[in-house]
Amino acid sequence: MKKPTEVIEVTPVPTPETNESYRINATPDPDSPTGVYIPVNLEEAITELDKMLSVVVKLKLLEDSIEDYHFSLGLWLRNNWNLWKNPPLVQNLVQMGASAHPDDLGSLLLQGYQKYLKSPFWDIESLEEEAHVKIQERLKLLLNCDRATLWVLDDGRQQLCAKVSISNKIQEVRISQFAGFAGQVIESQKTLNIPFDWYEHPENEEMRNSEMGSIKKTNYRVCSFLVMPIFTADEKIIGVVQLVNKIKPGQFPPYNPQNWPEAPECWQNSFSNDDEAFLEKLNQQIATIIN
Q: Is residue 271 within 8 Å of 9, Cβ to Cβ?
């Protein structure tokens, strides 16, 4: 078994306060009887849980018994997703064979989400064209960040390859394996964690200036990075995952590119040690798909 991933931190990564870490960041819905969005089926419920739960809670859910959450998260779900009534979500779960009792429905939702957390890429096959794009989309939800890129190492060409969806078409992007933060991590084989605010770190000025041209073209404001190597079971590096802009818990206006380079409040946050621990677990699964 390989040794735990070494980490490079440009400055100490702040430990989030407990109340922020455990906050339920539900999607507001003024038309809902409870004031928050209520999913209509199990699949949508899992996606919504991914959006509203912090990485701290997700890591605990991986290890804890669902029964431990009966009077906390389970109670929140019963009350705020209206499980005492008969919304479409309850109807969907009952049609799947579930008991209609709110306690049972809350436990079922948490069990389904826990199962998903343990294997979030279970339905992605390595040969399918959209595999990388699906992984990237799930990483954004799992790690609560704005962007995620899966760079796969092509040793023969000394390049890093990523696949992105543009206008509903999968396009391949290639860069030198020595380029940018991804290239730096490939070379060092160590995790790179750059907290908010990237623009204000003088030690990153050279790297920031080298990437500023492409960023300025889109007016995309980068605030934080987490870049981690992907290893096979025999410790061979085969790629990196690059996450950008940890989303701040709460409800904030979406980023407006016209305000560049002002940092939007929604991204005034940093990737934590818990994010690193969770991504390392996820990368082990990603390695089995891309290797």
A: no
CA neighbor of 160 nearest in space, from 187, 191, 139, 138: 187
pLDDT over 90 at 129, yes or no: no
pLDDT in tens, 147-173: 999 999 999 999 999 999 888 889 999
97: left (phi over 0), alpha (psi -120 to 50) or beta: left
pLDDT recorded at residue 232: 96
Spatial separation of the C-alpha atoms in residues 34 and 9, rounded to whole Å:
42
pTM of full prediction above 0.85? yes
pLDDT recorded at residue 3:
46
User: What pLDDT digit, counting tens, does each position of 12-21 carry?
Assistant: 333 333 445 5
Residue 262 has pLDDT above 70, yes or no: yes
Q: What is the pLDDT, as a whole number, of residue 216?
A: 59
Burial of 172 (0-12, 13-18, 19+ CB in 10 A): exposed
Given a cut of 70, whether residue 98 has pLDDT beyond it is: yes
> Amino acid letter at 152?
V
Number of CB atoms found within 10 A of residue 150's CB: 25
Q: Are 127 and 225 in contact (CB under 8 A)?
A: no
Strands 191-194 and 169-176, sheet pairing = unpaired
For the chain, how many helices (H) and strands (E)?
A: 10, 7
Q: Could you tell me which of 250, 239, 204 has the C-alpha nearest to residue 224?
A: 204
Q: Which long-range contacts (CB under 8 A, 24 or more apart) does 233-239 make?
A: 233/2, 233/287, 235/2, 237/153, 237/186, 237/189, 238/152, 238/153, 238/287, 238/290, 238/291, 239/150, 239/151, 239/152, 239/153, 239/160, 239/290
Which residues of the chain form beta strands (DSSP E)? 7-9, 145-154, 159-166, 169-176, 191-194, 225-231, 237-246
C-alpha 270/C-alpha 13 separation (Å) is 7
